[in-house]
Write a structure and sequence with these properties.
- The longest helix has 15 residues, at about 90-105.
- This protein has four helices and seven strands.
- It has one domain (about 5-145): Aminopeptidase (3-Layer(aba) Sandwich), CATH 3.40.630.
- The chain is about 25% helix and about 35% strand.
- Bound molecules: coenzyme A.
- The site of coenzyme A (COA) has 18 residues, from strand 4, helix 3 and helix 4.
- Coenzyme A binds near residues 87, 90, 115, 123 and 126.
- Keywords: Acyltransferase, Transferase.
- It holds the Pfam family Acetyltransf_1.
- InterPro entries: Acyl_CoA_acyltransferase, GNAT_dom.
- It comes from Promicromonospora sukumoe.
């Protein structure tokens, strides 16, 4: 695998929008079409395609908003979607590591993520395996924190 993070472009947008979930699917994350639309109106959003040897296998959107009053929304992962066939091969972990690296470039010490612990397909175990530590609850979801200092 040759995993890379790429900015959204005319070349990869269609494949990003075809990632799961689609509108009728039951997964604990919004369809990428929502995320791309939100990125259009939120200048703090940081959407990226994850490619494997040039093929889109995932999408991650971080948010960098240091002035945000709610600490859980200042720096971290907003969305993460991995193609069904690419799951279980380290794509999600790579995306988390890339967001952590970007946080360090920005001088940020910790990143957060919110996950739905009650969903049948909750990503909780994934985030715990990636090192996130539950620190509380917000909007009915678990807040997880990851220290990204080296
Ligand atoms: C959750 C998701 C992002 C994980 O991506 P992935 O590429 O399959 O995860 P990885 O292969 O990088 O796994 C990293 C670690 O987490 C573990 N892991 C991943 N999914 C897991 C699960 N459902 N249950 C238990 N462990 C899990 C892996 O075993 C691996 O552990 P290890 O390397 O320490 O042995 C992916 O399944 C997905 O897109 N799910 C649907 C959308 C979603 O839930 N997004 C997150 C919402 S914020």
């Amino acid at each position: 695998m040759v995993l890379r993070l790429e900015e959204l472009s005319v070349d990869n947008l269609g494949d990003v929008l075809r990632l799961p979930p689609q509108a009728a699917d039951d997964e604990p994350v919004a369809p990428t079409v929502w995320s791309v639309a939100e990125a259009y109106v939120h200048p703090t959003a940081w959407p990226r395609a994850v490619t494997d040897d040039g093929v889109v296998v995932g999408f991650v959107m971080a948010n960098w908003s240091p002035e945000e009053p709610e600490p859980a929304f200042r720096a971290g992962i907003w969305r993460l979607n991995v193609a069904t066939a690419a799951r279980g091969r380290g794509v999600g972990r790579f995306a988390v590591e890339q967001v952590a690296a970007e946080a360090r470039r920005r001088g940020v010490d910790r990143i957060t993520v919110l996950w739905d612990a009650t969903h049948a397909r909750s990503p909780e175990q994934f985030y715990l395996r990636c090192g996130f530590r539950p620190t509380g609850e917000l909007l009915g979801e678990v807040v997880g924190e990851l220290d990204v200092r080296v």
